[in-house]
Amino acid sequence: MQRCLDLAQKGLGETYPNPMVGAVIVHKNQIIGEGWHKKAGLAHAEVNAINSVSDKALLSKSTLYVNLEPCSHFGKTPPCIQIIKKFKIPRIIIGSIDPNPKVAGKGITALKNFGCKVIQGVLKKETDFLNRRFFTFHQKKRPYIILKWAQTSDHFIAPFNSQNENGTVFWITNNQSRQIVHQWRGQEAAILVGVQTIIEDNPKLTTRNFEGSDPLRLVLDPHSRIPKESNINKDKKPAYFFNKVSTSKNINQKRFIKLDPFNLNTFLNYCFKNHIQSIIVEGGKKTLQNFIDANLWDESRIFTAKKKLNKGVTSPKFDSKSQIVKNFDGDELNFYFN
User: What's the pTM?
Assistant: First the structure.
């Protein structure tokens, strides 16, 4: 099952809206086939694992390990339970039950009806955690929310505007930490900031410092203050701007969306209905604090650098116990889970 998780992890950022799944086929204590779900719309892990077995006659005497319950419905590909039935694989070992209402135990029931021996809950904690975005989306009916910010050792996240030199961005963290952040962006479905971040920093919100897919860019802009000349407004990449005023058609990959009422719950309902499964929030203090105060977050990633500012914009008020600590060339990174 751990091998299934290792394989599934390879699909991080590529399988939305599908979960990450790895599958391993074992015959007489030897792995004879394995595969993972590489991208939404392509074959699922079980299919790839079965296709990798050179001698298909062995399948009827083998065990299939998979970290998530095999699907039982038609989507962009046929249900995986059918290929398991076709090759008469007798034993199925499963990590987690699929929370998607379209599956949610139906795959296990079908496999048992086929005569398969099914064991579930193997490394369940680990398999649930791997697909925490997928589970949160289906169980809480909202995206998985990651808060991210960088702070100085004296707990400031930015200088006051007057402290910026020639409008340049004051970087708190080092190049290695910033590259990691770009890697994270490619792992999530969307990235969110408030309009003030666009006005002050003019970010691109892409993965330009790390190879990967750009996330969908979301901006909370209640009074439609987005500068016309901002990078996010001028480029040809998709961006959604949420406001209190009006909704307009998709123009040059940009959407202007009215939220009524304008609040985080309405915003997250929109994201759920439009299948946005995860969001990394890289906004300023106000945006981050709004998520914290509403307890609408699942994971926080906070960099603390050795630099000091002495004055500036203070860090969000955040009271939680760090569960993972890493160090990147002097920048301390703390992970928190809600």
Answer: 0.92
Nearest 5°: CA angle at 63, between 116 and 130? 100
Higher pLDDT: 76 or 56? It is: 56
Residue with token string 């203090």: 285
Handedness of CA 176, 200, 221, 315 (dihedral sign): positive
Rounded CA-CA distance 81/70 in Å is 6
Q: What is the pLDDT of residues 304-333, one digit of tens each?
A: 999 999 899 999 999 988 899 999 999 999
Cα 63 from chain centroid? 30
Select from 59, 42, 48 the least CA-distant residue to 22. Answer: 48
* Cα-trace Rg, the chain: 23
Say how many Å lie between the first and final Cα of the chain, rounded. 26
User: Which pLDDT score is estimated for 74?
Assistant: 66
274, 140 contact by CB (below 8 A): no
Could you tell me which residues are beta bridge partners of residue 96? 68
Q: Can you tell me the distance from the alpha carbon of 327 to that of 336, in angstroms, rounded to the nearest whole number?
A: 15
pLDDT for residue 305 = 95
Neighbouring-strand partners of residue 280 = 146, 191
Q: How far apart are CA 26 and CA 42, in angstroms?
A: 23
Question: What Å distances lie between residue 198 and 63, 86, 164, 169, CA to CA?
Answer: 53, 54, 15, 12
* Residue 46 designated active-site: yes
Chain segment 81-138, per-residue pLDDT in tens: 999 999 999 999 999 999 988 888 899 999 999 999 999 999 999 999 999 999 999 9
Q: Measure the CA–CA gap between 62 and 47, rounded to whole angstroms.
A: 15
**How far is 315 from 156, CA to CA, in rounded Å?**
5
User: Which of 191, 194, 158 lies closest to 173 in space, CA to CA?
Assistant: 158
Helix ranges, 63-130 (H): 80-86, 106-113, 124-130
Determine the pLDDT at residue 249: 72
Using alpha carbons only, give the angle 320, 179, 177 rounded to the nearest 5 degrees: 40
The single residue of 14, 34, 46, 229 carrying the catalytic annotation is: 46
- Residue 48 banded pLDDT, cuts 50, 70, 90: very high
